[in-house]
Specification:
Blueprint: H1 6-19, H2 43-57, H3 68-71, H4 75-85
């Protein structure tokens, strides 16, 4: 189990709250896939999550970004993207 950063904790909490998941945010492994075999998220979940992230951190995640598969690949990848692009702190 990898150590989770503060931002990863925040993003995990946001994922659980936004998508009304019935798990504890601490159960989301940082390197585990968010889609398919991981949390089982789908494209609608990605849209909802992108909207929540843009509201909280002040930057846009575009649906036509060719890097979305990588950005949303895991909690760690998503948190790293937030860290690199956020305009405001939570």
């Amino acid at each position: 189990m990898s150590k989770v950063s503060t931002l990863e904790d925040e993003v995990a909490q946001l994922i659980v709250e936004t998508l009304n998941l019935e798990i504890d945010p601490s159960e989301i492994e940082p390197e585990a896939p968010l889609f398919r075999e991981g949390l089982g998220l789908d494209s609608i979940d990605a849209l909802e999550l992108a909207l929540a992230l843009s509201k909280r951190y002040g930057f846009q995640l575009r649906s036509d970004d060719k890097n979305n598969r990588q950005i949303f690949s895991s909690l760690r990848a998503l948190s790293n993207h937030v860290e690199a692009n956020r305009v405001k702190n939570s």
